Amino acid sequence: MTAHLSNGATNGTSNGNNQSSGVSLDDLPKSNIFTSSLPPDPTFPTPAASHTAPRQALGPRMVKGALYTYVRPEKSKEPELLAVSERAMRDIGLKPGEEKTEEFKKLVAGNKIFWDDQSEKGIYPWAQCYGGWQFGSWAGQLGDGRAISLFESTNPETKTRYEIQLKGAGKTPYSRFADGKAVLRSSIREFVVSEALNALNIPSTRALALTLLPDEKVRRERLEPGAIVTRFAQSWLRIGTFDILRARGNRDLIRQVSTYIAENVFDGWTSLPAVLPDNDNITTSAIKPPRDVPKTELQGAEGAEENRFTRLYREIVRRNAKTVAAWQAYAFTNGVLNTDNTSIFGLSIDFGPFAFLDNFDPDYTPNHDDHMLRYSYRNQPSIIWWNLVRLGESLGELLGAGSHVDDEQFISKGVTQDFAPELIKRAETIIGRVGEEFKAVFMAEYKRLMTARLGLKSQKGEEDENLYSELLDTMEALELDFNQFFRKLSSVNVADLADEEKRKDVA
Fold first, then answer.
1. Contact 359, 480 (CB under 8 A)
2. DSSP string, 108-163
3. Which residues, including other chains, have CB under 8 Å from residue 477's CB and lie 6 or more apart?
4. Do the bridges between strand 147-154 and strand 30-31 make them parallel or antiparallel, or are there none, so unpaired?
5. 76 close to 228: Cβ distance less than 8 angstroms
6. Nearest to 261 by CA among 165, 391, 380
7. How far apart are CA 222 and CA 215, in angstroms?
8. Per the confidence metrics, is the pTM higher than 0.85?
9. How many CB atoms lie within 10 A of CB 297?
10. Residue of 69, 24, 307, 274 lying closest to 170 (CA atoms)
């Protein structure tokens, strides 16, 4: 029996009020802009080449010079649809009741794709190639080891485009030594937390459906039932996408992917943030920077000139600053903040050993392998910035090129020996300035959220910082439950706090 999870908030994709709106799965607009714009695995360069190949020939293996491999989900036997998020249905643009159709159930079980093997037309599924820094060490090629994207959908009303993906639908070239499967236990956790974060207005990938695979027994510490989570996001690109390109010296692909992100993931080059004023008041100016800068315009002081790729970098940094601020305000700990788990779109992504804090302990990490507490609650902002510096290094040539970024010699031959010192200095200066912007955006968003959580009408600068500091120190000393504290605080009547005696009674 299908159980429905509904929530009352969304990440700004739709108002969700019109219960009767939406279209059928067949009528939902679909595209494959990602695979049409970026280079495929050269071993299987077309859907037909992948479709006719024996499954074992697809991998696991190393894939170079590509952003993805065409790969189909494995067929599942007697799948059972366990849960569907009604909110996700509305945000994608599917009509109520569509989840009851056989076509929908086949899709979320990996038994339906929108590609015809006779005519070789339609959209063929794919898995992305990326690398990553894990626990501070380079891990090499990683990629979608158990995730397969089916197509991009566009909500007919909001025009928001999502990439629909199955997690747990079988091996890909990037599965390494794993089986490409997901167990029911972890799939339930991802389904719930994705929609819970969205309900809290914390940017997150989403979960549409949860499907049990009763015929699959997946070996982990023990045999467990298998499952598939159907999930979606505006983009599944991550910092690790750039990591692998930089490690392999694919400078042309770094430029190509950057351009793709600006033009197809974000709303074009003119949607990106303009340079901030060169003064000491970055805290104020960073909150809402001007935009609408022409694509080829150069901004900034001499030695720190910002071209369009710097504006792209700053947009990615700003989004992640706001997301980690929300994590801190709601005490969400990701647990595995590797660069392959850091979203270009600024989303909470790839949920492993995550947790919300119970008793307030800043050094808490839900990852039992994280003995150095690298990914603890306290360290999340600094780790996200560490990851963003890695992205800055991958984009370093483009950032440092300044006005020469479109010169034919720079594009075709790279950095000359004479130009290198100037380029490096400019890139380092820009990354440093963007780091200050990261801090300012993070603090502004954190203060905004904490002010709201405390029920305060307005912010009062330094007074608020002292308040938050003393509050967190008290919660840590008394081992108070973080989120329960705010829940109980919401039930306190202001009139009951009129004098010292009343405040003590309430406390």
1. yes
2. HTT---SEETTTTEE---EEE--EEEETTEEEEE---SSEEEEEEEE-TTT--EEE
3. none
4. antiparallel
5. yes
6. 391
7. 16
8. yes
9. 14
10. 69
Of 216, 201, 21, which is closest to residue 109 (Cα–Cα)?
216
Residues 6+ apart with CB under 8 A from 233: 162, 163, 165, 205, 206, 343, 345, 347, 349
Of residues 424, 435, 420, 455, the one with CA closest to residue 387: 435
Q: How, if at all, do strands 206-219 and 30-31 pair?
A: unpaired
Q: CA-CA distances (angstroms) from residue 235 to 34, 190, 315, 342? A: 9, 17, 14, 12
Question: DSSP letters along 43-107, please?
Answer: TS-SHHHHHTS-GGGG-S----S-SEEE-PPPP-SS-EEEEEEHHHHHHHTBPTTGGGSHHHHHH
Place of tokens 């569907």: 84
List % helix, strand, coil for the chain (3-state, nearest 5).
40, 15, 45
Q: Is the peptide bond before 60 cis (omega within 30 degrees of 0)?
A: yes
Give the alpha-carbon dihedral of 442, 13, 341, 222, to 10 degrees. 130
- Helix (H) / strand (E) containing 210: strand 206-219
Residue linked to tokens 């392998």:
369
> Which residues are known catalytic residues?
340
Bridge-partner residues for 481, per DSSP? 359
Q: Which candidate, 390, 410, 286, places its Cα nearest to that of 339?
A: 390
CA distance 424 to 463: 41
Residue 180 corresponds to which tokens in the numbers above? 């490409």
Mean pLDDT of successive 10-residue stretches along the chain, which has 507 residues: 39 47 96 98 98 94 98 97 98 98 98 97 98 97 97 98 97 94 96 98 98 93 94 98 98 98 98 82 76 96 95 98 98 97 97 96 96 97 98 98 97 96 98 95 94 89 86 95 93 88 86
